[in-house]
Amino acid sequence: MISVIVPVYNEQQGLEPFFARLVPMLEGMDIEYEIVCVNDGSTDQSWALLVEQRKRNQRIKLVDLSRNFGKDAALTAGLQYAAGDAIIPIDADLQDPPELISDFVSMWRQGYEIVYAVRDSRESDSWLKRISASAFYKIYNALARVPMPANTGDFRLLDRRVVNAINNMPERNRFMKGLFSWVGFRSMPVYFTRQQRGSGKTKWSYWKLWNFALDGLTASTTMPLRIALYLGLLLSLFAFGYAVFLISRTIVQGVDLPGYASLMVVMLMLGGAQLVVLGVLGEYLGRIYDESKRRPVFIVRESVGFDPGAGNPSR
After folding, report:
1. Is 114 contained in some domain?
2. What percent of the chain has pLDDT over 70?
3. What's the rounded mean pLDDT across residues 7-31?
4. Are residues 178 and 273 in the same domain?
5. Do 41 and 155 belong together in one domain?
6. What is the number of other CB atoms lying within 10 angstroms of the CB of residue 269?
7. Which of 246, 251, 247, 252 is nearest to 265 (CA)?
8. d(Cα 130, Cα 108) in Å, to the nearest integer?
9. pLDDT at site 3
10. How far apart are CA 271 and CA 267, in angstroms?
11. Do 44 and 168 have their domain in common?
12. CA neighbor of 154 nearest in space, from 191, 187, 193, 117
């Protein structure tokens, strides 16, 4: 059996066309399946529409979170509730074509444990989105201990062994794309052309994407701390050399009051560098604080269609 996980957040306009493409495709594959829809605190009619879809198809199972916890938390919930031998996360906006699932399953049957979709074209994105995405993958792979395939999202197939490994990870601050790469296993890419959204508007503003990128870097590597250390050492050496220069010039030429401007430049530069380093430390300290509280990644308000004891909502 395969489980298709669908995180949903305010997708009322796109749910009907999404299921109209997904369900017939799954029915035509001659394989057992379930569709686990995780409502991530939607404020529109998404939950009511999901309940209506379940009335039509009992293979659709529902998880309603108590509020909006974020896509990675919703995906975590789906992974914990899914019962399939292979699990496939997919967005409901139809930018990731459901028809690609058959290729995933074919590769899985050949022995691959992770089959991930790679966007060979991002023409549907704005030029700023394309540039920023390219920069993120380059920076991430340069800093992270385990690189991540460029131009990949959450759309992929995960073998049950992969999902069990991810579900056993105790961390709360989750960057799922990084975790998918970190666990390893035999992987194979499948290339496709990303389409425009089927309906509605994206929930990702550039500010949210920036914060998401910071979360991804700090969750996957401590290299920013090492860079801060090197930056501090470099500036300290520069400041020491400049101090030697000032002392030598004063001994030779006497007191030079006009040096006030250069002194202020050095002070401002060092002060700015210190604030940057403190900011990096603060990012990691904040994540340590969140982890130490050991709050659950998500809270389930209601689940529909699962056997008693399914999932692990305490995590």
Report:
1. yes
2. 72
3. 87
4. no
5. yes
6. 13
7. 246
8. 30
9. 92
10. 6
11. yes
12. 117
3-state helix, strand, coil in the chain (%, to 5): 50, 15, 30
Total-model pTM: 0.70
Residue 46 resides in a domain: yes
Q: Which domain holds residue 241?
A: 223-293
Q: Within a domain: residue 313?
A: no
Q: Are residues 137 and 157 in the same domain?
A: yes
Beta-carbon-side half-sphere exposure of residue 215 (alpha carbons within 13 Å): 17
Clarify whether residues 180 and 259 are in a common domain: no
Contact, 82 vs 3, CB < 8 A?
yes
Read off the pLDDT of residues 229-284 as tens digits, 9 standing for 90 and up.
Answer: 677 777 767 766 766 776 676 677 665 556 655 666 667 666 767 777 777 777 77
Same domain, 188 and 243: no
DSSP character for 152? Answer: E
Q: How far apart are CA 231 and CA 235, in angstroms?
A: 6
pLDDT of residue 265: 62
- Best-predicted range by mean pLDDT among 160-169, 184-193, 258-267? 160-169
Token readout for 16 is 């009907």
pLDDT in tens, 262-274: 666 667 666 767 7
What total number of domains does the chain contain? Answer: 2
67's tokens: 């509020």
Least confident of 31-40, 79-88, 276-285: 276-285
DSSP string covering 215-236: HHHHHH--HHHHHHHHHHHHHH
The alpha carbon dihedral of 300, 170, 116, 307 has a sign of negative
Label residues 28-51 b or e (16+ Cβ within 10 Å = b). eeeeebbbbbbbbbbeeebbebbb
Residues 250 and 190 in one domain: no
Using the predicted structure, report yes or no on whether residue 52 has a pLDDT greater than 70: yes
Q: Per the domain annotation, does 64 fall within a domain?
A: yes
